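[SOLVED] Need 3D model of a two-part complex

Original post:
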Amino acid sequence: MPHPLDSFFSPESIALIGASRDLEKIPGRLLSMLRRNEFPGRIYPINPNYGDIDGLKCYPSIADVGQPIDLAIVCIPARTVLGALEQCAAAGVKNAVIISSGFAEEGGDSAAMQDTIAALAKKTGMRISGPNAEGFYSEVQRVAATFSPTVEIKPEAPRLIATRRRIGIVAQSGGIGFAIYHRAKALGIALSYVVSAGNESDLGAGEFLDYMVQDSSTDVILLFIEGIRDVDKFLAAARRAAETGKPVIVTKVGRSGAGERAAASHTASMAGWSAAYDAVFAKYGFIVSNDLDEAVTIAAVLTTSPMPKGDRVAVLTVSGGAGIWGADTVSMQGLQVPELSETIQAEIRALLPSYGTARNPIDVTAQGVHSGGLQKSIDLLSVSDDVDAILVVLSLSSDTRMPFKQAELKPVIDAQHKPVVFYSYTLPSDFARKELAASGAVVLSGLTHVGVAMRQMVQRASFKLAPPAGMSAAPPCDVSAHLKSARLSEADSKALLREAGIALADEVLVTVKSALDDAIARTGFPIAMKIQSRDIPHKSEVGGVRVNIATKGEVFLAYGALLESARRHRPDAAIQGVLVSPMAKKGVEIIIGTMQDATFGPMIMVGLGGITTELFKDVIYRPAPVSATEASAMLAELKAAPLLGGFRGAAKADIPALSQLIAQVSVLATAYRDHISEIEINPVLVHPEGQGVTIVDALVVPKSR
Amino acid sequence: MPHPLDSFFSPESIALIGASRDLEKIPGRLLSMLRRNEFPGRIYPINPNYGDIDGLKCYPSIADVGQPIDLAIVCIPARTVLGALEQCAAAGVKNAVIISSGFAEEGGDSAAMQDTIAALAKKTGMRISGPNAEGFYSEVQRVAATFSPTVEIKPEAPRLIATRRRIGIVAQSGGIGFAIYHRAKALGIALSYVVSAGNESDLGAGEFLDYMVQDSSTDVILLFIEGIRDVDKFLAAARRAAETGKPVIVTKVGRSGAGERAAASHTASMAGWSAAYDAVFAKYGFIVSNDLDEAVTIAAVLTTSPMPKGDRVAVLTVSGGAGIWGADTVSMQGLQVPELSETIQAEIRALLPSYGTARNPIDVTAQGVHSGGLQKSIDLLSVSDDVDAILVVLSLSSDTRMPFKQAELKPVIDAQHKPVVFYSYTLPSDFARKELAASGAVVLSGLTHVGVAMRQMVQRASFKLAPPAGMSAAPPCDVSAHLKSARLSEADSKALLREAGIALADEVLVTVKSALDDAIARTGFPIAMKIQSRDIPHKSEVGGVRVNIATKGEVFLAYGALLESARRHRPDAAIQGVLVSPMAKKGVEIIIGTMQDATFGPMIMVGLGGITTELFKDVIYRPAPVSATEASAMLAELKAAPLLGGFRGAAKADIPALSQLIAQVSVLATAYRDHISEIEINPVLVHPEGQGVTIVDALVVPKSR
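Solution:
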C-alpha cells in the first residue's frame, strides 16, 4: 500500500543543498556517505561555489536542476534555510530534511524561523523533517541521508546479518537513534530504516512511526521519544501497530525531574507526565524498555524467533553454574522453568555423560558439545510439547571453535517452531557471531536483558487490544448544570455522578435540624455524617466526619457538633449542610480517579485504597475512556489484585460492578473533558460478588475557565 | 601479613601431575598455559610416559622430583587421583588443585572418593582445592594454574589496563569465574586472582574469600556462589571485609526452584534459602548483583573511583537525548541530579555554544568537544561542592577521534576528588578504550548498569557494620521448662516469652468458668478471648477468637461459645482453656519472626503485618542475633517504613520499643537454637512514641528431637 512518506524514505532523486568538497565538514560527509552507501538514484549537489564535486555536476541552485526531486537534504546556515526551502517548494521538491541547527532549541527569533518553516510545509504540501535532525538511513534502499558515522561503510568489517526480520528505528534524538542502530548492527540485526525526528517542524515521530507500522520491510519497531508532538498521528499509528500485531519497543525519556527539565530545553519538547505515556503504551501493547542494550536484545529476540505459545522455558547449558544462573534469571522474570517429562528426560539423558543432567536446566556438559548432545537436545526440545522456548547458555568466546554446525542448527532455526535464544557468558567472539548468524541466530551477551526479552516476548504474544469503550453506548445525561460553580462539595459531586447514571447510596443533605428525622428514616442505622462545604475540601481536617452512629440521640448531637467544629476551624466557609448517609457494608477499599494529561487528555486511574496506594504506588492508568473489559484488565494488573480475587479465604469481590463503575467514570471524564478537570472517588468499597460497590466519598473538580 | 594460602596462590614451584604433550587435551593445555603466561618459578611435569616435554624434564612420579613443591596441579583420571595425592603428601607438597572431574557431582562411589580426599587433607595438612575445579590464575604472580581459554596470551591484543586498583574473583563455578575475568579484562580492569572452587573437598569459597580480603593486591572482590560450605570461614571473611572496608560484589545463584534443583546436583552444593543469604550479605555490606555485566560495571566503578561523599550526580553530555536518558537513569536509582548553583552554571555556560545548557544534565553539545568545553566542565565539576560524582555520557565509537587529551584528563582522574564515570551510548571502539585507559578511565556501555553501579557505590560509601548484638548483655533466664512439649499454644508461648524477659500484657488463662470474674478484674474492659489448645494452631479457623467484648454477660457467653465451637470443630483437641486479654490499644501492625536456615542458623525477620506482608512481600531478614540498633536499621529498610515514621500526620511509632523487642526475640532464638525452631509474633502493635508495643499473638515452635 502506498504511503505519503514513500518518496521521503525511498527517494529516486536527492538534492543536497550546501554540498561541499570538505570531508571534515558535515555537508561534505553527507555527500560522501550517500555515495559510499551506493544510493541507487540521482544525486544533485547544490552549491553556487562549485562546478562539480567528486565527479558529480554541482548546481548553483535547486531551480537549476530542472528534474523532479523527491528529497532535498538541507545543510546550510540556519538563516539561509527558509529561502532555500521556498526555492525547493517552488521547484516542486516533494520532501526536505533539514540537518541545520539553530531553531526552536535556541528559542527567540530562531524559534520563530522554525514556525515559518512549519507554515511553509502546511501551505505548500512539501513535507519537511527537522530542523536540527540527524537525517535518516535506509538499509533497504541504501539511502544514507545522514552524517551519522554509524552508517559508514567499513570494507574491513562486512555487515553481519543474522535476523530474517528487520527493525525500523524512529528516534527524536538522532544521537540515540543511530546508537540503537550501531548496537543492533553489531548483533547482526537487519534494518529497514533509522530516522531521527529533530525539532519536528512538520514531520513528527508519530508520522514516522506510522510509516514503519505500514512498511512491509519493517517487522519490529524501536521508538525513542522525549515527548510526542503529533499526538493524533502517533495514536493512530499505535492503534494500527496493535491491530496488525507489529511489535513496538519504546523508550521514553524525560521521566525524572532532571530529565524533564532537560527535555524542555532540548528540542523544545514537552516531556509530559510519564505515567500517561506508560498508560498509552500499555493500551497499545508497546514494549517499554528504558535501557539501550535491553531494547536491542528484545529486538534481537523478536526478529529471530516466532512468538512463543506459552511461558515454559528450557534452559540448556554446557556449564552447571551458568545454567543455574540462566534458570534463575528467567524464573525471576516470572517465566516457568519446568522439570521436563520423564520421556524427554530419558531421551536427553541418553545423549549425556553421567555427570550431565536432563531435568531443566539441562546440563549437557562440555563433553555434550563434542558428542552432539547439545545439538540433539535442541532438536528434541524444539519439537517437544514440554516447553515453549529454549534458552541456550554457553561460552562463545573462541575465535576458532564452534559448538554448532550450520547444517544442523540452521534447519532448527528455520523451522521457527519456538524461540531458540543464545546467550554467551563469556564475551562472544566475532567468529561466533558470524558463524551463528549464518544459521539465523543472534548471540546475546546480557543475561538479565535476555530474561527480560523472553518475558516481554511471552507477554506480547498474549496481548490483545481492548475493544473500544463505546462512548455512544453509555451517553451520560447532560451534567452541565452541576458544573456551574468553580468548586464542588462531596454532595455536589455525588449529585453530578447520579445525574451521569452512576449508582450511589441514598443520602440526604440535611440543612436544618428538623430534617434529621426524615433523613434517618431514609438511611436507617448505622449512619455516617459529613459536613458539606465547597470551601472545605478535606472534611476530616476540620473534624467534619462522624461514622458508625447508631442512635437518634447521637445523630442530633453529631449534627450540632459538626456544624460547630466547621465554623470554629473555618469561620469563612460557606456551609451547605450535613450529608447523612447509611454506613457502607464492608468491602475492599479502592480508589478511582481521572485527570487530564497535557499530551493525551483524560486519563483514568485505579488503585488499592487506604495507605497502600501512597506507600506502594500500586495504581494503574489508562487513557480514558475504557470499557468495562479494559477496566477489568487494569484491575488484574494491580499488585493488590489478589485482594479482589478472594484473598486468604475471603469472598471474591464484585469485579464486574467495579469495572462497570470505572468505565462509567472514564466515559464521563472523556465526555466532559472541557468542563471536568479531575474526578476522585475515594474510597469505593467493593463488596462480595453480586453485591456491587458503594461510593463512600467523591469529588469532581470543574475545569477552571 | 602472611596467609596460610600464600604458597597456594603464589607458589615458587609447581608440579603438573598428568602433564602431556597433546595441546588438544586439558593436561597439555595446562602446561602450555603456565609457560605462555611466564610463570617465574620452577615447573615439574610428572608423567611416567615422557622423558621431557617441550624442553622441560619430565618426572615419572612426584617422589622423583626431590625438590620442595608448593603446588601440585592434578589432572589425571578420577580413579588415580587419591593415589597421586597420597604421594604428594608423602613428598611434602604443600598444596594441590585437582582439575579432574568425576567425584561428588556423580554421587555414589565417586562421592565417597571425594570424602577420602577431604580426610587426607585433614590428616596431612596438605591443602586441596577441587576436585572438579577449573583452577586459578594470578595476574600478579603470573600463575596460570588453569586450562581456561580466557587466560590465553594473545600477542595481537595486548592486555588493556585502565584501573589503578585490582579485582579478585572467587567463584564456585569455574566457567563463571573465568567469564567474569573475561569481561573485566575487556574493560581494562586489573586483576589479582581468579579462583574456581569446584567441589571444595577441602578449600572452599569462604577460605578463598578470606585470602582475597587479606591480600593487599586485591582491592575489590567479585564472588560467585551457589551455596557456601565453609560457613564459619565465610562469615569470618565477610566480617573482616566489612571491618576493613574492602568491597565485595556477590552473585548468588540457585534462587529459583529450577536453579535450586540444579545446584543440588551440580557440584553437589546446597543452594539454601536465598533470603538467608541476602540477609547475611546485607549485614556485611556486600553488594548483591545478579547480572554479570552489572557486577563487572560495579567493579569497574569501584576500581577507578574514590568513594563518593554523597548522592548528587552531575550528568555531562554532548547529546541532548542521551543526557536526559543518563539523568533519568541515575534519578530512577534514587540518586540526585540537582540543578547546579548559578556560579558554576555561569562558569560552564561561558564554555558552551548558545544551544548548550549548564543546568544538569549539562549538554556541552558536539561543539563543546572541539572547543574544550567538555574537558573544562569536567575540571570544574570535579572540584565543585555542588555534586559528589560525575557521569559523562557520550559517543566513543570512533576508531580515530577522541574527545579527550590524556594530558588534560589523566590529572583529573589521578586527583581522585570524586567518581568520574564514562558511558558511551554507541558501542565503544577499542581505540577509545585504549585511549581512555591511558588516563585511568574505563568506558562503560550499559546505562542501567552504570546507574546501578553509581547507586551501589553511594550506598556502600555510607555502609556501617552493625555493632555485635551482645548475647551476654541480655541473657534470657532459663526457658527450658517451657520447651518440654512438642507443640506450644499461644498461652504456652507467651509464658515462655515472659520468662525470657519480654514484656507482655497481663493475661489470664481461664480453665473454669468461675475464674472469669477474677480475670475480668485483672484485665478490665474491653476484652479479647481466645481458645487455647496445643492441637489448634489456627484459632480463628475453629471460631476460637472473640474481640472487643465490653460487658461481663458477654464474657460469660463467649466463654461457653468458644469451648463449644472448638469441641465441635476439633473434638480430638486437648483444650487448655480460654485466654482472657485486655484489648490492645491501636498501633501499627508488625510481624516478627525467627526461623533456622540450614546454612546460617537462626534468622530474625520483621515486616509490616496484615495483608501487606503477604501481598507486597515487605519483610527484612538478618542473621540472629541483632542489637536494637541493627533492628532499627532493619525497620528503616522496610518499604512500609514511613508508616512507623508518622505517616499522613499520624503519631511517630515507638521504634525504640519495637527495636528492643526484635533484639530480644533474636537473642532468644539464638540462645535456644537447639531447642526452638521458630518464633512468630503476629501481630505486635506498635503504639505512639513512648507508649511501647503490645504483643497480641505469639507462637513458639520447639525443635523436634
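Edit: Chain A touches chain B through 85 residues (CB under 8 Å).
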